Every structure is written in C-alpha cells, then in structure tokens.
C-alpha cells in the first residue's frame, strides 16, 4: 500500500497550458509538502501545509497554486506553463511540521 | 543566509571500503538535520533525523553524527546496493523551512 502517491507520474504538455498534479498520503500525517527537483537534482521546497493551513510559501511564481482539501490530500495546480517549469515535482508528508518527510515517486513534468 | 553544502559531490568506493560523507550547514536555529537516500527515478527515502550536537543514529551499515557545524554519514563496509545519492537537509527553527544540499552521488563497485 503506497504511503505517498502522486499522479500522474509523467506529464508532457505544451507551453501555455494549465495542469494539475494530485497527491494523497495514507500515513495519517499532519504536514504535506511540494518540492521541485531541477535538472541538476537540486531539491527546493515550494509549499507546505500543516492541518490544511499553508505554513511555507517560498518564492514561487503565482502561476503555482497549492490546494489542500483535507489533511490527506495536497494538489498542485500550474497555470500558463512555461518551458522553465520542466522538472520533477515531489509531494511529501511528515507526521508534524518538524519531522522527517516521506516522499512520493515524483511527477516528471515536461513542457514543450 | 541558511545554507547546506555536501561533499564530495561524487564518491566511488570498492565494496567493503568504508568512508564518510560530509554535510556542512549554516542555519539560524537548527530544528533538525535529516539524511535521505535517493535512487534514480525515485523520491528521496528518509534515513535519519538528528536534533542536537553529539547525537548519533545508526541503521545497518550507516551511521550519522552531528556537530554544531556539520554532520557526517559514515558508511561501513558498503555493498553495491548502497549506491545512491545521499541528501542532507536542515530545518530552520523559526520558519520550519527545509534547505537541502546538492547531494553526494555514491557508487559502490563489486
């Protein structure tokens, strides 16, 4: 039973399109995250939610909008996709805001 | 500015050849230091959390230690299956923000 699952695993889309990535965790954790891993494999936090409340909102273009309908889900919506948005996006969760995180398998987004 | 630096960038070891990976950090109020392992095409896998200087954690062939300025991940008698990228991250006290290092790519040769 997958602990943190995100869909889709691969996403290829054209510039200017709007897309969403979904994430669900079945660990009962309170905190969820979105990370971006660039081509050099550098992981950077984008957002974090704790009990559905946004607690970390890094300097990310406002084309990126997270949404947490409940504690177990954190989705990422991206408007007007640009070439530079191509990366692997990871969802993660942790028991609380101060713990080690469990990551999903990643969504490889390619914008053409 | 909060920062994490890992060294070396890449490391090749023969099977059974023990070594250490380094994670140096500067952060305003360390809340925790984390080690992860990442295999190609997969998400990072959580290994350890260290909270205070002098703390040590062990798991199989891995041992993580922490000082006020750096952490070491010691790998004892590594096997080829230990080949992966090892990532270090710190969490800043006030903001709860995580900062990752760029990782050490470890290759263990049979």
Description:
The complex is a heterodimer of chains A (112) and B (110). Chain A has no helices and eleven strands. Chain A has strands at 4-7, 10-13, 19-25, 31-37, 43-50, 53-57, 64-70, 73-78, 87-94, 102-103, 107-111. In chain A, the strands form two sheets. In chain A, strands 2, 4, 5, 6, 9, 10 and 11 form a seven-stranded mixed beta sheet that branches. The mean pLDDT of chain A is 93. Helices cover 0% and strands 60% of the residues of chain B. Chain B is built from no helices and eleven strands. Chain B is globular. Chain B has strands at 3-7, 10-14, 19-26, 30-38, 45-50, 56-59, 62-66, 70-75, 84-92, 98-100, 104-109. In chain B, strand 6 (56-59) and strand 7 (62-66) form a beta hairpin. Chain B is mainly beta and 110 residues long. In chain B, the strands form two sheets. In chain B, strands 2, 4, 5, 9, 10 and 11 form a six-stranded mixed beta sheet that branches. Chain B has a five-stranded antiparallel beta sheet with strand order 1-3-8-7-6, with no helix packed on it. The model of chain B has no long low-confidence stretch (mean pLDDT 95). Chains A and B meet through strand 5 and strand 10 of A and strand 4, strand 5, strand 9 and strand 10 of B.
Name the average pLDDT of chain A. 93
Structural class of chain A: mainly beta
SSE order of chain B, one letter for each helix or strand: EEEEEEEEEEE
Q: Spans of chain A of 5+ residues with little confidence (pLDDT < 50)?
A: none
Beta-strand residue percentage of chain A:
over 45%
Q: What helical percentage do the residues of chain B reach? A: under 10%
Spans of at least 5 consecutive residues with low confidence of chain B: none
């Amino acid at each position: 039973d997958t602990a943190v699952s995100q869909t889709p695993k691969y996403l290829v889309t054209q510039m200017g399109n709007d897309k969403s990535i979904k994430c669900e965790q079945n660990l009962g954790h309170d905190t969820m995250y979105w990370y971006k891993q660039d081509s050099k494999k550098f992981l950077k936090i984008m957002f974090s939610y704790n009990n559905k409340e946004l607690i970390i909102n890094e300097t990310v273009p406002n084309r990126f909008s997270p949404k947490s309908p409940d504690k177990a889900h954190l989705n990422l919506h991206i408007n007007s996709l640009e070439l530079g948005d191509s990366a692997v996006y990871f969802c993660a969760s942790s028991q609380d805001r101060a713990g080690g995180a469990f990551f999903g398998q990643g969504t490889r987004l390619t914008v053409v | 500015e909060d920062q994490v630096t890992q060294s070396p960038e890449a490391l090749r070891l023969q099977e059974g050849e023990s070594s250490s990976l380094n994670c140096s950090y500067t952060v305003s109020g360390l809340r925790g230091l984390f080690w992860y392992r990442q295999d190609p095409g997969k998400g990072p896998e959580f290994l350890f959390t260290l909270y205070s200087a002098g703390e040590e954690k062990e798991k199989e062939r891995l041992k993580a230690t922490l000082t006020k300025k750096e952490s070491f991940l010691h790998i004892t008698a590594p096997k080829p299956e230990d080949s992966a990228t090892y990532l270090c991250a710190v969490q800043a006290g006030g903001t709860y923000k995580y900062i990752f290092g760029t990782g050490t790519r470890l290759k263990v040769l049979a």
